[in-house]
Amino acid sequence: MRKYRLAVTTAVASLLLLSGNAFSQENTRLNSISPVTDDMLLNPSDGDWLHWRRTYTGWGYSPLEQINKENVKNLGVAWTWSLTPGATETTPIVHDGVLYIHNNLDKVQALDGATGDLLWEYIRDLPQAVIDAGGNTATKRNMAIYQDKLIVSTSDTHIIALDAKSGQVVWDVQPADWSKGWRYSAGPLVADGVIIQGMTGCGNAQPGGCFITGHNPETGEELWRLYSIARDGEEGDSWNGLPVESRFGASVWIAGTYDPDTKTVFTGVGQPYPWIAEMSGLLPAQEGKKNNALYSDSTLAIDPKTGELKWYHQYLENDTWDLDYVYERILVDLPFDGTDRKQVVTTGKLGIIEAIDRESGEWLWAKETVPQNVVASIDPETGAKTINQDAIPRIGETTVNCPADPGGRGWPATAYSPRTQTLYLPLAEYCSNTTPQPLSPGQIYTGGGRATFARIPVEGSDGNIGRVDAIKLTDQSTAWSHRQRAPITSAVLPTGGGVVFGGDLNRYFYAFDDETGEVLWKTRTNNVVNSFPISYEVDGKQYVAVAVGNGSSQARSLATLTPEIRVPAAGSALWVFALPDTN
Amino acid sequence: MGAGKIFALLLVLFGLTSSALAQEGERPYLRDENQFGRPADDFSLSFCVDPRDPSWEVDKEIGEAIARALLLEPKPFVIESTAIDTDDAQLYRYLLKDCRIHFGFKLLAQGIPDWLTVTRPIYESGYIFLVEDKSIDKLADIAAGKGVASTLGTTADLRLIQFNNSHPSAEQWRRFPYSTDEAAIRAVLSGEAETALVWAPTFSQLQKANADFAALKVIDPQPLVLPGVPVGAVLLAEDTYLRVNIDRAIGELVADGTIDEILKKHGLEGQTKP
């Protein structure tokens, strides 16, 4: 019988809170935490990091400017904290000086943001099969904070609320059964007083695919469920005549963003499974049927209170390459074609930046970045894509597609700086020799795959795989492009100080000049910089935090292109940087 | 295994996920791999079988017979997971932590990961078409446009796809992919499809627990050709010495009829080949 370590959690928290003078500061830090209100979520304090990408707009931008272009060269280690070994696709939350961090396999810790002292920790008692499986689903890309609760999705497919001051479980709900293959790899978004959580793992024998749920933050009660695969009669038949039981995929594995003006949540959806369209039944196209497989590779505009789908926009029809359009939706209000437009900007694995009007769903513009051969052309009016037929995988053949399946950009997020009106993108240049393979499921169908992706450099490559691009969103021009051998494996973090932080497979963490791309500072950590860096302020001092660690399939896939770069198997850690006190 | 021929495997039990076949040279990442040493040579043979595999009891008995043939004590490790899915990292963990050899794998001529090696075939089984309509004797009797429920991604499924897609659309069957053999069979019973293409040993086992499956009959796959599928076991690539000895033992057990007796005892659809 499974049980949760409430007693352990309570004991640890109590020990840390009551064990004398050494903990007085921690006690003060915890006691000073204020409830996170709706207003705070709408307008976070500059020193806090309350959302996955800090603000509802999804910018991933810190307005802090104590660390700037001139003094970033003096940046040093403020403190470090060892994390549970394994993938570290994690984003800390910081509120009132307390830093909350999700460790691999659902250990959640509250740390003093200034000192790194442990304030409390919660350790989930996971089923052994979940622990053994490990992998990407043991890490969570984000958590959420609301009122006095930290909201966490778990590796056994529960959503739990932890008391932000003690780490004790307030409520625990299970929207789906992990043993049936359902998974959470990202955390929730709290919008308009509702917890919104996407489901992934939907290639694992879940006929009908994935879904998004809305939950009551007081109790965890499920308020609504929106399926990410269209049902019969919904938007016509877009699944080539396949019954719902034969439709798979459309995972929602990245948290959404939110426009409070229109009370609309924007979330991305992944591709249909299995990836090879001949296998999924989406090819050959049936006469009189559509085979674009809604709502895969789309933006969904959702009413957070009801789960109603207001509108959608599909970027890539019938994705047969595992080239998701699932990532962060960035909300910007900028002119386009001479008119101010409220835009939602996203970049799929193809590395094509695309903007749509977030009120009407109208497609606005696209900008290519890394080499790709899948999309032959894009209609400048509608965004409709003409696909290069030679890049479509076929059973019995090996075809070449660029980028490869982990994407010209992967889950490490892009970020937008209002300072420069520029989008910064961590990118990778590579291709794949793709060969559909049989994988007999026997009793257990596991998934999305069914192809061998032999990753190769782009034809004529100079050897550089990693890249950070800066694209001006006002005119879609390229401000700068930093290219290097080592793949960029972290999200990027632009700040009010004019620097952009990001890290790579080769363990380096960089600060780039946000206007020129010049490397202003770098330091070498102990492992792959493979997470979402953040910046926050405690007691008047600015910090930059980033988790490092091995185990993410995205980084490990990129690593096959640079075999000379060796990284340790163990050694996940949180690094926190700051300027010297004398600075 | 023919000289120079590269064998890949298809898992009877496991369907390797995307990460598994993503890059053939990649050894799966285990965050705690440093905790597992390789077992020292001793007087036992540890082997894994998985009750989620319909032929796991056959595998267990074969494992015991192989151990005895090698004058070793059989140490079966029965996997307890009830998860519907698994992946290559889990397989790697079993082979590091729980057993030296894992039974229940199809052996096919494509892309074996470098970190695995396979045994010689132990027996051969195959895929079958099932119908409820007793007037249907072969696949060719099923009219174009009718539904074929096929378990996703099997070698037989790929053959069906290629055959079907090589014909004009008006002459094609309508293939519906399903996640499991049972789901494909149920599509026939519900009338969604005319026939189901499934793994024969699975059907044998499902029949025992599902009385309504008795209404189904096996038909001739013509005009499709469905060759037999060899079934064996996998080991870590470094266990070459052990594999050679196991292969020798399998050969002896095939030759003296032991494997055939085990298959017959369990009613498993399969044949041995010397």
Keywords:
heterodimer, A: 583 residues, mainly beta, Methanol Dehydrogenase, Chain A, 4-stranded antiparallel sheet, 6 helices, disordered N terminus, B: 274 residues, alpha/beta, D-Maltodextrin-Binding Protein, domain 2, 2 domains, 7-stranded mixed sheet, 5-stranded mixed sheet, 8 helices, 12 strands, Solute-binding protein family 3/N-terminal domain-containing protein (chain B)
Q: What does the secondary structure layout of this molecule look like, with pairings?
A:
The complex is a heterodimer of chains A (583) and B (274).
Chain A: H1 6-18, H2 24-31, H3 38-42, E1 76-82, E2 93-95, E3 98-103, E4 107-112, E5 118-123, H4 128-133, E6 144-146, E7 149-153, E8 159-163, E9 169-173, E10 189-191, E11 194-198, E12 211-215, E13 222-227, E14 248-249, E15 257-259, E16 264-268, E17 272-273, H5 277-280, E18 298-302, E19 309-314, E20 330-336, E21 339-347, E22 352-357, E23 363-368, E24 375-378, E25 385-387, E26 399-401, E27 415-417, E28 422-428, E29 431-436, E30 451-456, E31 466-472, E32 478-484, E33 493-494, E34 499-503, E35 508-513, E36 519-524, E37 534-538, E38 541-548, H6 553-559, E39 573-578
Antiparallel strand pairs in A: 1-39, 2-3, 3-4, 4-5, 6-7, 7-8, 8-9, 10-11, 11-12, 12-13, 14-17, 15-16, 16-18, 18-19, 20-21, 21-22, 22-23, 24-25, 26-29, 27-28, 28-31, 29-30, 31-32, 33-34, 34-35, 35-36, 37-38, 38-39
Chain B: E1 8-11, H1 18-22, E2 44-49, H2 56-69, E3 73-78, H3 88-97, E4 101-108, E5 116-118, E6 123-125, E7 127-131, E8 147-151, H4 155-165, E9 174-178, H5 181-189, E10 195-199, H6 200-209, E11 217-219, E12 229-236, H7 240-255, H8 258-266
Helix pairs in contact in B: 2-7, 2-8
Describe this entry's structure for a reader.
Chain A is mainly beta and 583 residues long. Chain A has a single domain (6-578), classed as Quinoprotein alcohol dehydrogenase-like superfamily (Methanol Dehydrogenase, Chain A). Chain A has 6 helices and 39 strands. In chain A, the strands form 11 sheets. Chain A has a 4-stranded antiparallel sheet with strand order 1-39-38-37, with no helix packed on it. In chain A, strand 27 and strand 28 form a beta hairpin. The termini of chain A are far apart. Chain B has 274 residues and is of the alpha/beta class. Chain B has 2 domains: 8-19 and 40-125 and 229-266, Periplasmic binding protein-like II (D-Maltodextrin-Binding Protein, domain 2), CATH 3.40.190.10; 127-219, Periplasmic binding protein-like II (D-Maltodextrin-Binding Protein, domain 2, 3-Layer(aba) Sandwich), CATH 3.40.190.10. In chain B, the strands form 2 sheets. In chain B, strands 1, 2, 3, 4, 5, 6 and 12 form a 7-stranded mixed sheet that branches. In chain B, strand 8 (147-151), helix 4 (155-165) and strand 9 (174-178) form a beta-alpha-beta unit. In chain B, helix 2 packs across helix 7 and helix 2 packs antiparallel against helix 8 (258-266). The model of chain B is unreliable at 1-24 (pLDDT under 50). The chains are: A mainly beta (583), B alpha/beta (274). The interface between A and B is large, with 67 and 68 residues. Chain B: Residues 1-22 form the signal peptide.
